[in-house]
Amino acid sequence: NSFCTLLASLKTNLSRSASPCSAMKRVQVPGVKNIITFCSAKGGVGKSTTSCNVALAMKNLGYSVGLVDADITGPSIPTMMRVEQSEIETYRMGGLDRFTPPQNYGVKVMSMGLIVPFDEAIAVRGPMINKYIRALMFQTDWGELDYLLIDMPPGTNDVHITVTQEVALHGAVIVSTPQQIALIDVRRGIEMFANVNVPVLGLVENMAYFRCGKCDEKHHIFGQGGVRATAEELRLPFLGEIPFVPKIQSETDVGKPPALRGDRTLEEARPYYDLAEATVRELEHVQNRVELPTVREED
């Protein structure tokens, strides 16, 4: 079918493209002012839900925003943002396929899930993952954006190496639940960013508590304060708490994330607006404090 043809073409084009940048020779995505990764190093902590809602909150705060789904083998952003394969446009330039990303709710989206049919397994080896990431970042026409958010997969693997060494990142937001088993991996993720000189803008605690509808008490299902304590220990900003609210899951699962409405007074939306503002604020602090390295733009 057409999608299989497109994927085959993409593989061919990527194999002909220029060799990857050498380590630490990072490339700026044309037209994009700031690139921020949302990372956890641990799976199942709600990172994709967080990045999706923060992107929408930023858009509703007046910024132009794009969202990259960097989880090559398990993309979920197309479902959360309610975009489909039929919405992606492709054309050829200089012998390469280029992509015009679909846009929904005012946010541009690019994902492997928009290239491969949703019911088809995505099984790729390390070298191809590197090439696919470069295609999503540099063969996509993002236009002029204030922020490009990258939803990273779990772990510290090929995707993370490619993104941190080849993309001119401006900062990373670390998402975690409060239990120690998640925070062990979070520390590894923070160390990875430190090793490649990418500023960690701060940590956010997801599923921090559940507020009972009957007694109005907070119940800390996954422990209490673990992320805040880790941030304090590592001398990193604590960006806030996101409660366990059933509506966050149910609405995001059907492609209507709670931050979409623009009403930050809603319990399920307010934490994402707070996090979006905290992320912008911390990035400004970093940029005022540190002169970022000179980077080149991808042709």
Report on the architecture of this protein.
The chain is α/β, with parallel strands linked by helices and 299 residues long. It has helices spanning 2-16, 47-60, 77-81, 126-138, 158-166, 180-195, 226-234, 246-253, 270-289; strands at 27-28, 32-39, 65-69, 89-93, 96-100, 103-104, 107-111, 145-151, 171-176, 200-206, 210-211, 218-219, 238-242, 296-297. The strands form four sheets. The chain has an eight-stranded mixed sheet with strand order 6-7-3-8-2-9-10-13, with helices on both faces. β9, α6 and β10 (200-206) form a beta-alpha-beta unit. α1 packs across α4, α2 packs across α9 and α4 (126-138) packs across α5 (158-166). It starts with a helix and ends with a strand.
Helices, strands, pairings?
Blueprint: H1 2-16, E1 27-28, E2 32-39, H2 47-60, E3 65-69, H3 77-81, E4 89-93, E5 96-100, E6 103-104, E7 107-111, H4 126-138, E8 145-151, H5 158-166, E9 171-176, H6 180-195, E10 200-206, E11 210-211, E12 218-219, H7 226-234, E13 238-242, H8 246-253, H9 270-289, E14 296-297
Parallel strand pairs: 1-14, 2-8, 2-9, 3-7, 3-8, 9-10, 10-13
Antiparallel strand pairs: 4-5, 6-7, 11-12
Helix pairs in contact: 1-4, 2-9, 4-5
